[in-house]
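Two records follow; treat each independently.
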Amino acid sequence: MKKTSPHIVVIFGASGDLTKRKLIPALFNLHQQNLLGHPFAILGVSRTEMTDTMFREKMMEFLPDNETSADFIGHLYYESLQTSDEADYPRLKERIDDLRREINAPANILFYLSTPPNLYPLIPKHLANVGLNNESDGFKRLIIEKPFGSNLESARHLNRDLLQYFEEDQLYRIDHYLGKETVQNLLVLRFSNSLWEPLWNHKYIDHVQITSSESLGVEKRGGYYDHSGALRDMVQNHLLQMLAMVAMEPPTVINADAIRNEMLKVFQSIRPLKKENLQEDVVRGQYTSSHIKGEAVAGYREEEGVDPESRTETFVAMRLNIDNWRWGGIPFYIRTGKKLPTRVTEIVINFKPTPHHLFDAALNGTTAPNQLIIRIQPDEGILMKMGLKVPGAGFMVQTVNMGFHYSDLSDAYVPTAYERLLLDCIHGDATLYSRGDNVEKAWEIVQPIIDEWDTNPDFPLHGYPAGTWGPLATDELMAAHPSGWRYPCKNLNNDGEYCEL
């Protein structure tokens, strides 16, 4: 394990939900595993008036009650700041300098922007104006939460703003899906096993499905979500990043630029979506009122903060093609939505059937295809589906599972996505972070859809009852594949069932 340098973590938006529910628990777990190093300090920054003691008490509510927590909480500090006001930043620099002297640490600083996106261009500018981007006395790194813009133009504008004040190698655009253990294991599965790489191409793979479903609706985020939608919220970032991990060529080495260069090549190879084909390749949906387990469930337009006539999508499914030597002719299907039957994210590699169907008669005329299922969440693991003979006379064949579950590793510590990504940033490893050119290229892929939805009121918006797997038109998207979509359950082994909420 790489040695962790002394450092200070500065969290902007420290009074918010992400800080108390994700960031502070992740930093605590790293400390508990002796991975944060010493000395270190965590400085919370936001507009809310609080003392160090008040901030510590508030964060303690989200930590276990033990000696390690008591020790960790002593490393927490707080500074009230108008983050949009340049005049407050000399005081922030002074507080950071005081902390450095107090804990006897060099000027290694990680800034985490857990703030509204409109502050993304301002905070780096104000930090730079007081010299907090200068690495002459220690590293200065900036973690930025999504969204990285709302379309291609705004993403380019944001990147230009950021690069005025920080270098690209100081910028860490976080996508917490890439921090999940199974996503990282995808690279190891592909490139450390000679079994898979010869099969990982158009000769043996029929199609690829990537699903990220949520059982919840928009909850209290209706006002925000109604200006975002599933395409911006999930497809442009999480799903396209996972697609690139599946489709990329082997990197020459395992480091940030080598991997991100290969992911960029995938984005560059995705066939541009044409206006005249969008209705064939893209399905847009919005959940409607329904009953789940006998209880009435509101439709999206009935949610708090949502326009009663909203055409914002809560579901997207699409077909993408990668025009390169490895993937020519093989479709990639991605779908994501809210108020679906279960919360699950997985990648399904569907292999082509055998060229001669010896056992069709035993299977009543059908042969279940081989599938490799890479489960990102929950019940993280990898499952291989294959046909084997049923014991007894004849050649009756049934599909069986051969799998690996992270839950079986009782002695191994599996870090959360935020733990892994925070530690990587402290170590200066940007492998699992998005680079600016990758972000822009991902926006370029979905921009034709955004333009069409913004300008064509006749583009279909399909309703689907809350608690179902999306619009019926989604099945038409998969018409070329008799096996259709996989309907996953929370338990990785319970596939092939229609799971209810």
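The next record belongs to a different protein.
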Amino acid sequence: MKVELISIGDELLIGQTINTNAAWLGQEISKIGGSVVKVTTISDDADAIVKAISELDSDLCIVTGGLGPTNDDLTKHILSKYFDRKLTLHEPTLKHIEEFFKRRNRPMLQANIDQAMLPEGCEILFNRMGTAAGMWFHEKNKSLISLPGVPFEMKGIFTEEIMPKIRERFSLNSLYHRTILTHGMGESFLAEKIKEWEQKLHDDKLSLAYLPSPGIVKLRITSHRGNAEKEKINGYIKELIDIIPTLVFGFEEETMGVALGNLLKNHKRTIGSVESCTAGNIASALVDVAGSSKYFSGSLLTYQTEMKTRLLGISQEFIQTHDVVSEEVAIEMAMRGKEKLKVDYCIGTTGIMGPNAGDSQHPVGTVWVAIATPKKVFAQKFNFGDNRSRNIEMTTLASLNLVRLTLLEEFPDDHIKILN
């Protein structure tokens, strides 16, 4: 099944909004054996929309955007005209919209009622999460789906309404994917490290894709023979873990917070953080995981230098002697945080996130991360670069990973269990 995606919205073209819809749809379609062959982003313009639809050459097209209640939401009207279908009141959709506003104790406008006016003859796709119904047209030798651009609404309709129908109506390739998550080595160095293992995959008619992002390289193994090769792929994953045992931290969409949380939970350990440059981002990464209260105790935010004295009792003289961005201060933060929070492990971070305030001794991106454990305390220096948000993200990943590696030293066989 070949699929084209059309994303509508001026906000996408000017970079005001990132097109996450196309990325998500591409992933989901690939999972079921479809192939996205083209992605087009166009403006909220009638001629542009008609031109894009007229040029379709695929088994299925999915259009996102332009179904809202405002005057610049043109998609429904353009599609009804293109497929020569007049708009008529769809009673089930109107009833849903009325209930939607009633539950929220909000008045309905005529623009909201108009959202129940839908092209007759098309297949209506129920939107449980919002008021803009999806539409599926089977006209002019085209199979075209129109979905709202709001991501959670689009995902809901696709998952609940479209996915089952695609499986029934289209011939899908038998694909099986596994994604291995790594941290601690760049893409090119990783490729060199595992090149012999990768060659074995290719010889066995399995494909490997490198998917890098800040701090993480995903390795996606694909079989074109479906689930029949599940055990074979698991065998290759075990081989990979033997080659890079400390780099693999998870699978599929697992986060570093999930991976570390599982280790802490399995071994009944607790953790806290004392954060300066990360400003609570480490705590956020930990508590994003459901059930984190079993192992995460709390965090102390000591962003300004004086807070390190007021909350932790680190003297100003000590900080001035060693410098606030230093191994010594990071270690004091972790040690004192461990004591105050009464946890098994405590992370301390201090650094310069940028884009300003760096100097020759401490350029922007300089970070010290300290880990206090039941048996020791240690610190590691990192130099990440000059992008503030990326530096925070990278420091968070590195901090969680240092604790993960420390736990694996204590429980060296635990990384194998990650396959389960």
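Discussion point: The chain has a mean pLDDT of 94. How would you locate this feature using only the token line?
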